[in-house]
Design a protein that fits this description.
Two copies of one chain form a homodimer. Chain A is an all-alpha fold and 291 residues long. Chain A has a single domain, classed as Farnesyl Diphosphate Synthase (Orthogonal Bundle). Chain A has 15 helices and two strands. Chain A has a two-stranded antiparallel ribbon with strand order 1-2. The first copy, chain A, is globular, with a radius of gyration of 18 Å.
């Protein structure tokens, strides 16, 4: 995978090393489960969500290293959602990041449990985040709400229903399915730091817009990129008859919408104090990515 | 369902009412997901795990009502595990508590998401438990560890592997799959109360033994009770070629083991201070239950 000079690779290296070190149990009988969990967890990717958390720490003047537990927990949640999303009863995808999906590699039963296990371990690791316990609890509440019915799982539900959506419905789908976890990846950090509400709101506005941007680009890439570059079969959305930004607005208008969303995210960020350079670089990467 | 005079029905009523009141989102588009979650959550049952939590509160001299958030969270986790356990790729069961299983009623995709949603909402609700934040975090760490690789999900993994197990393997399987969540149902309460370590250990010993007892009885009921009484097809274990206490030891010896386990649980409880009457009644119920 090529290294974009603009992406905060030092933060990606940090989280990559932390994820590689994670172990869940020394028991021999569950070693195969742990192997399946690590197979998906260590399959690479840009680690956008944990890098956002670490970049937010830097923007707030805190050492990113201190936030590795929550950053790792967020990536575990994201990985669990991908494994369940790929299942035959869901999107039924065979490839993810260029490798066989979890159920293709380990069987459907193990894939379900690998997802469940990653979610449970994410919560455990989050509980071990150093800091003021009241702040850690509030941040974990933010993350779990972002992954529940009024978040990621609710968005996946709207997605599998496969009903025809209008523009408002599409925005709601993605705000829940993708947006809230991306938003939480940023917002847990000011919550952990006890940052005041008005400053936290600026970060929330930035992060919400980033979630929208992420999804528009995802929909564009699904029709413009090759399987090899995407690491998964392209045209998957069309095959499933899903409403996307491209199917609803056409490719050119979708590209314009992405540009508007990117500008809004940048403008929210400009209001935040601190060194937001790395957050800006992640926003730029999301806007210009090809995978 | 008949009411056993010995079971702490007042505590069951408390948790039943709290579960019935739970709502996860007002959004119309996810109402179907919420319906599926509530379908399984409100399917009845003795509510052994949350009743254990509330009975432990009573034993420690605290008002059970104060612990309804964690008690509800524990039942949500238990319900999520049942939904995923019943899936076609797992145990492939059609009935649960006398009703069609979640995937039979709503489809496999919605069942997977209903389980995922219950887990996420359980964590959110747990984060809202009133109390000393450091204690709430420690208790949630206990629950999430009990549901992860070195707990429930790890036990389900050993179960689906379906390898022939010796006595030690069988004990490990059930200690993880059933025992740790039952144990956590008791132990989160002294952790929340900041009870000293030696007293907490007594409750942990009681709860660990209760987990063993619960599973031996489960295995016995699977071969001795009718489908109607169990609310699920009996003989399910044998059909899946699973090692059970009955297949390993025979019915009579399994009954003796249950008696020994019950005696050990009672004896651990006798060492605890406080009014442990309700905990004793739950242990007696688990020993003598027919469903």
């Amino acid at each position: 995978m090529a290294t974009e000079p603009g992406y905060p690779e030092d933060l990606r290296d940090l989280i990559e090393a932390a994820l590689a070190e994670l172990r869940f149990s020394p028991a021999p009988r569950t070693a195969g489960l742990e192997e399946a969990m690590r197979y998906s967890l260590l399959a690479g990717g840009k680690r956008v969500r944990p890098v956002l958390a670490l970049a937010t720490a830097r923007a707030l003047g805190a050492a990113p290293e201190r936030f590795l537990p929550v950053a790792a927990a967020i990536e575990l949640v994201h990985t669990y959602s991908l494994i369940h999303d790929d299942l035959p009863a869901m999107d039924d995808d065979d490839l993810r990041r260029g490798k066989p999906t979890s159920h293709k590699q380990f069987g459907e039963d193990v894939a379900i449990l690998a997802g469940d296990g990653l979610f449970a371990e994410a919560v455990r690791i989050f509980c071990e985040q150093p800091g003021e316990p009241a702040h850690v609890l509030a941040a974990l509440r933010e993350l779990s709400a972002a992954t529940g019915v009024d978040g990621m799982v609710g968005g996946q539900y709207i997605d599998v229903l496969g009903e025809h959506l209008d523009a408002a419905g599409l925005r709601e789908l993605h705000a829940l399915k993708t947006g809230r976890l991306i938003s939480a990846s940023v917002c847990v950090v000011p919550i952990l730091e006890g940052t005041d509400e008005s400053e936290t709101l600026i970060y929330r506005r930035f992060a919400d817009e980033l979630g929208v941007l992420f999804q528009i680009i995802d929909d564009i890439l699904d029709v413009t990129e090759s399987d090899e570059r995407l690491g998964k079969p392209h045209g998957s959305d069309e095959r499933h008859g899903k409403t996307t930004y491209v199917s609803l607005y056409g490719l050119e208008r979708a590209r314009e919408l992405a540009g508007e969303s990117h500008a809004k995210a940048r403008s929210a960020l400009a209001e935040a104090g601190g060194d937001t350079e790395d957050l800006r670089r992640v926003a730029d990467y999301i806007f210009t990515r090809h995978e």
